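In this supplementary section we document a worked example of the pipeline. Step one takes a protein sequence of length 318 as its only input; no multiple sequence alignment statistics are reported here. Step two produces a three-dimensional model, which step three serialises into structure tokens for compact storage. The input and output of this example are shown verbatim.
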Amino acid sequence: MSAPTPSKRPVALPALTRVSDRISFLYLERCTVHRDQNALTVTDRESVVHVPAAAIGTLLFGPGTRVTHQAMSLLADSGATAVWVGENGVRYYAHGRSLARSSRMLEAQARLVSNQQLRLGVAREMYELRFPGEDISRSTMQQLRGREGARIRRIYREQSEKWNVPWTRRDYRPDDFDASDDINKALSAAHVCLYGIIHTVIVSLGCSPGLGFVHTGHDKSFVYDIADLYKAQLTIPIAFQVTASQPADVTAGVRHAVRDAVFSSGLMGKCAQDIQQLLLPDEVPEDTELNNDVVNIWDYAAGLLPSGNNYATGGDAS
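The serialised model returned by step three reads:
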């Protein structure tokens, strides 16, 4: 039996890289991830690369990746998120500790979704992102859903004409993927990729994937909310373009195209900014430091109190 690996001292918070200055994500596959002091080592058949753990926002573990206990311990101490994904990072499977040590984003999300008027305000902001420059403050949710439906139908029609891909309607069966035509398969594959990427960002920020504002009742409601902000510019055009090229495997072609588009457009960074703007609109990124390792005690009258203190009085104190 090999000697036990000595434990390392946790990385001090002041030494950590601010969230806003970190690498948004690093994707790894077919390698072994271990630890050397306060750096990760990534080993494959050709080389060993050292990666500063405190400079990573999210580490995506793809197929064929093995990670050691010591590496996971370092990621946790460094405030980095570990997410297990499918090939090229386009499917979300599971995650370790969130990048956020603060619960501010999660608390803001819960507060907003639990109040009808506040929830309506966030839902309207989501629609405003799709109708820039237009005043929709007096529109009902029913009216907004109708406008969004008309917008998506128009985009389908425009993309069909642009790429000469026949289009009738969105038609797919979740229980029988092969029953759809190529364009509907491509759309389904592209959207699934987008959902996985958005899910990764949401859990990295410490938010809840299930607390949606437009969608509700599903463990991925917030994922669907955020993903809908980007479909018209990203996944729908990609699906029509790839289908028009008639690849041997349309779904594989779509996954690769979405991967490349996400990287070139900086979607993950934009998604993180959009979520923060929706949940904490009055705070600038520098003020919303997700790495603050602060624990308070809640009091309905006094507000937040410092933890770690003995609040016993008189003879009860020990």
